[in-house]
Amino acid sequence: MATTPASPDPTMEAIGGAVTEGRSGDVRSARRRLLALWSEIGVTGDPLHRCSLAHYLADLYEDPAQALAWDVRALDAADAVTEQRAQEHHAGLHIAGFYPSLHLNLADDYRRLGSFDAAAEHIDAAREHVPRLSQDAYGASLRTAVEEVAAAVSRRDTARRASPTGPGRMTHRVAPSRPREEACPTRTVVLVHGLYHRPEHFDRVTELLRTGGVEALVPELHRGSLAADTAAVQAVVDALPDPPLLLGHSYGGSVITGVRGAGRLVYLAAFVPDVGESAAALSATSPSRLQEAVRAEPDGSTTLCPDLAADLLYQDSPAPLAAWAVGLLRAQAPGCGRGVPLHHGWKDTAATYVVCGQDRVLAPALQRRMATRCADVREWPVDHSPFVGEPGLLAELLRELLAAGCSARMSALRTVRSGWSPPTRTRPAYRRCSSIRHGLFHSVGFSWSILFASVPRTCHRPPHSKRLCTHG
Fold it and tell me: Which of these, 58, 118, 198, 391, is most buried using a 10 Å CB contact count?
């Protein structure tokens, strides 16, 4: 078996350098390096590079919601890696060796977030690929980990699980935060997509935010109902130490309306339902051209006609970019749009509405009516999906709102220190937890060191501070 890559790969070497830095304990610097590399590679770049980078970047987040976003990207990229491309990188690299660990990581992310059905699906997928693991210590440890996580899913247990260190697992510490006097406590944005969409549709925005030092989380919906989608986003918000800025696009507006604990709400061409209202009921007052594109499927779900979807959703984007976005669209289960929120966050949380004036899906006139429920209203001459065609415009707005919220909170903090105490914000109970990760590329006779020969196989385990996350 070959012991060196088939040809030099500067990108893989750069990823390996960042992995080494993360292993040495400088997690923030490693994360910055990997995020910068991700921006260079791009969302349509070499899938082997994207898979490797996303997997190891997930290792640098203790928060399962943040790790989930990158683990999803790693699995998506792995599906696009051909056997030929893997062999070009190294003769010992096989696609089949990617999947047990990728699915196990996703199962553990979903389990810790309380999404047990999704976790069970990835456990089943991991078990399907486990027979391809090597019969060595690593293979045995990964098989054991699959069954341990499966047992935790069966118990509906969201607690951290301890696991022995295995090759390729990254154990890390989080660099201490600056004191609150010097740093804004709210630097996190949670982006909620609409019907038919995926988290990856926000990739162009999240790249801009992350390179600017803003944490961006994009939970996946498609949980079967508005209540389930709202619960998934609520789990992400509850896992954060400070109230995030929460953005909902289109149907995502109904989702964020029902979420509690956000620092600010942003409705992007989105529904803003009041008591007893649903997205379907609101849209019925102003019919959408999207119905022209909807196609019924035998299983009861619906999909969108690609050509019409490009014209209705992404008309401002160049054809290749629109084709990329259309390619990400997925089938939509019925009924979500008829859900009615049980809570209406815009009534007690600062809210901004962005009207998309050239929208062919959600009529601008309806958007303007709903926008009257928000104190701050902006209008842009863009299509329904500016996160694809105008990501810089959206990222700039989010940074502006974060800065405004930061100034207000820091002013309040100074007031508190002068002797006046405002009402305290009630938050869920938290417990201390640490991170579990598993190695990635371990097929028969193959270890992750084939990818990154310069990274030591046995890793130094520095002491690490454990961040807060929700307790079961």
Answer: 58
